[in-house]
Design a protein that fits this description.
The protein has 79 residues and is an all-alpha fold. Helix 1 runs antiparallel to helix 2, helix 1 packs parallel to helix 3 and helix 2 runs antiparallel to helix 3.
Amino acid sequence: AYLGGTCDMIGELVRYATNQAASGKFKQVAKIRSQADSIMAQLLDFDMTGYLRTKYDQARGHLRKLEQMTYEIKLKTGK
């Protein structure tokens, strides 16, 4: 249950980052991405199968969205 919740937290971080970006708080988005990267790095240590593997794959997809968001912010702001 703990690992599934941790995977779900990545999606919540992406939602939070989206709200921060909409408010123009781009530095906050970079911090959120860093936190999400750290969490995903820790999740790599676990051998997940079945339901947990599905949750992990969803978290990876959410992380890709966050990476895309930070890339687009860098393009628009030049920072």
